[in-house]
Structure formats: structure tokens, C-alpha cells
Protein: Signal recognition particle 54 kDa protein
Organism: Rhynchospora pubera
Amino acid sequence: MVLAQLGGSISRALQQMSNATVIDEKVLNECLNEISRALLQSDVQFRMVRDMQSNIKKIVNLDDLAAGHNKRRIIQQAVFNELCKMLDPGKPSFTPKKGKTSVIMFVGLQGSGKTTTCTKYAYYHQKKGWKPALVCADTFRAGAFDQLKQNATKAKIPFYGSYMESDPVKIAAEGVERFKKENCDLIIVDTSGRHKQEAALFEEMRQVSEATKPDLVIFVMDSSIGQAAFDQAQAFKQSVAVGAVIITKMDGHAKGGGALSAVAATKSPVIFIGTGEHMDEFEIFDVKPFVSRLLGMGDWSGFMDKIHEVVPTDQQPELLQKLSEGTFTLRLMYEQFQNIMKMGPIGQVFSMLPGFSAELMPKGHEKESQAKIKRYMTMMDSMTNAELDSTNPKLMTESRIIRIARGSGRTVRDVMEMIEEYKRLAKIWSKMKGLKIPKKGDMSALSRSMNAQHMSKALPPQMLKQIGGMGGLQSLMKQMGSNKDMASMFGGLGGLGESMVSRLR
Ligand SMILES: Nc1nc2c(ncn2[C@@H]2O[C@H](COP(=O)(O)OP(=O)(O)OP(=O)(O)O)[C@@H](O)[C@H]2O)c(=O)[nH]1
């Protein structure tokens, strides 16, 4: 089952249960069985699903449900907590420190995306001011060194490897030694893979690890390997001290459940996920936003991270300020379009922002979307400053529309379509009004600014009703313990609403 479908199946199971007039053990069991089926189809390991089911039964009090409390909310909350628990091994992984040399060894089967991920990891840190270096200790796959060399050159990251030397242990040790001397603070060792788990591979991993003494061993796993995830992760953990996991190819037909199994098998956290073949398609992994997404709830914090990453630094304060004011002018739309055209990855920002993704930039239709954006921009070029800076759509009278169409060589219909698009986005953005936008890494500012009043405004009416109105929302926030959890759980505000509502229809 594809990741996105899992949330839908769980929502449906919860909905069916809430529709029942009396919630007794039988109804609850049916609901939990339905949820378990969905998790199993998502490749979560059987034992974990079974444990989760019995944990939820212990937590959920049938008397509470019978007393008319919001059943759906109580169970959803329990499912959310249990999934978070599964993904949180309880201790963070080793975190390298900028300016202090750390050796990071990558292990994984052939084709898992290890080499690509090594470069993504190096590039991610390089952008943040680190001095990374790559060592290719994969002498098994012909072409591995060329691939790493190509990637490293593109990203301007120093690399070490050899076409002649066949001993991976020797190369790894030499490479690490060289980059230590060059004062690199992040020395990344890419190792060999095999098509399947075999003794020779694990012996090689043991030897490379012994020679390089890594501060952290990262296990790289393809998200689509299904139920095999647990055994594969465990096999690596038994030969080397795996301390963190990176799950790749989460963009494709990803089965998110594998991530849960890998965490359980290695008792190590997932630290990043790969979301595409490009260097910057790489995201920090946070448990709560991930589970929110898994349950179809959007990802507000991911959106904030992306803004910080791709919007030019000098534009950030202004954009964030405007976001919090809830004012969305045609000029702001124009500027964001400019960003989209300048830098590919900004599409990722808008894919997390409610409204921008599906209609404006559907996946797989990027070319058409770009053409559409260019068309919109040409029309906006024919607008006056007053028109661009206005927040009042009524300003766009018939005569102005005709003038813009003539000026840009487009039809009146084209201009109206663009204005409709603007109105649609402005409506969504207005929901952010008053929200304090956190500085990088400071989600607490966001949480402080979130209160039930805000939340109720941002949520679509159907969703609010599901939660049990203002009262239900307030008690849910109280129950969540902290607004921070709430912020991540409720993810992309309107985005949450949209995806939930479409599922509930
Ligand atoms: N869609 C997608 N493709 C990815 C991702 N990560 C890696 N790939 C692709 O997966 C394929 C295999 O990646 P490699 O990095 O060559 O795999 P590897 O595990 O290093 O292979 P060995 O060096 O033989 O062990 C390549 O075509 C990558 O572009 C990802 O996050 N998403």
C-alpha cells in the first residue's frame, strides 16, 4: 500500500466506527482490525502491528467512548501516539559537530541508493557551512567510483577513491586519513553493496568499520523493499554498529511501513529521507510530522524548513511577515513565481503549502505548470503598481482586465483565469493571518501563537465538526499536552483540512 493511501484507510476505519450508535468491544475490535490491516499492507511488521493493537486497547477506555466523547478523536490520538512510539527508539543518534572531525560510514544493499545518499548528505551539510569529503570504498561494483566522482564534482565536494586498488579497507583507511589531515569535519565513507545479504558483505563492513572507526554508521534502505525491511536492517545491525537509518525513494511507490520496521530492527532513529534522484531531494526526518503525513495531516514544519532553505535569505523576513499578515497581493504572487522560475526546488515549498501544489504544480506536469506560471507573469507585467499591490480583487474591473489582456497579448479569459488563481491562493493565505512565524528551528514560537481560536479559523468547518467544535478542539489541545505537538500534528493547517475533507467525502 502506498504511503498516502494508509492515512485514507485509517481515516475510513475511524469514520465507520464513529458512525456506529453504540461503541462496544466488537465495534472497537473491528476498527482496530481495519487499521491493522492497513498497516500490514503498508509493510509494517506483523509483530509491531499486533503490539500496537493491544497497546491501543489498553489505552482506550470503552466507558469513555460510550459516554459520548469524541470517539474518532480518542482513537486517532491513540494511533498517532503509537505510531510515534514505534518510530522513536528513545535515544537520538550521534550528531556530528561542525568544525570537529567526524567519520560517517554508509552501509546498505546494492541499489538502495547509498551512493546517491552519501552525496546528498554531504551536500546538505556543505550548504550549511560544513567541510564534507567523500571516500569511495566500494570496489565491488564497477562504476561506483565514477558515480561518486561525478556526484562529488557536481557538488564541488572533495573525494577520494581508486581505479586500481581492489582492497576497500585500504582505500577507506587512506581516504579517511587524507581528509583528516585536510581538516574536513565530515568524512563520509561509501561502502560496497551486494544484491542480497551475504556473509562476504558483512565481513567487509566489519573490516572497513574497524579500519575507519566511524563515529556513526548509517544504514541506507530503499523504502520499497516491503516486509524484508526488518530482516535486512537487523542483519546489518548485527555486523556493524548501525546508529541511524536513512530511507530512500520515499517519492515513488513508497511503503512507509518499512521505515517503522527498520527503526525497530536497528533501535536507531531515521534521520533523513530521500525524496527524489536530485541532490537536494533530501529531507530531515522528524517523527511527528512524518506520522501526521502518514495519517494524511499535512506538514507545517516541513514547509517552514523549505522556506528557509530555498527562498533567498534577503526575501525571507519579508515573505514571512506578509504570510503572518495574511495579505497576499498579486505582487507577492509574482515574486513567488519568480522564485519558482529561478530555482527548481521552490516547487517543493509550494508542494507543502496548501493550495499551491495540486492545481498549480501537479507532479509530473512541471513543464506545463512552468508555462502556465510564465503566462501569468506576462499578464502581471502589464499591470500597474496599484493593481499589483492591491488586496482588493474588486479593483480588477472589466476595463482593466481588457487593458491587461491587450497589453500582454492574451485573451480576457486568460486574465480572468489568472485572477481566479490569485483569489484562490489569497483565500488560503488569509488563514495564516496573525500566526507568528518562527525563526529557523524555533517551532515554539509557532506553538505559542497557536491557540484554539486560531486553529478553529484555519480548519475547514467539516473538520472542526469532526473534532467536536470549539470545545472538542480545546480539550484536544489540552490533551495533546503541548501546542508544539499540536502544531506538528495539524501540519499544514488548510492542507490538513483539504486532505482530510477529501477523504471524508
Ligand atoms: N526516486 C528516487 N531515486 C533514488 C533516490 N535515492 C537514490 N535513487 C536512485 O536509485 C538508484 C540507485 O542508487 P545508487 O546510489 O546508485 O545505489 P547504491 O545503493 O549506491 O548502489 P551500490 O553502489 O551498487 O551499492 C539510482 O538510480 C538513484 O538515482 C530517491 O530518494 N528517490
Residues 108, 110-116, 138, 141, 144, 147, 193, 248-249, 251-252, 274-277 surround guanosine-5'-triphosphate (CB under 6 Å). The first helix runs from residue 3 to 19.
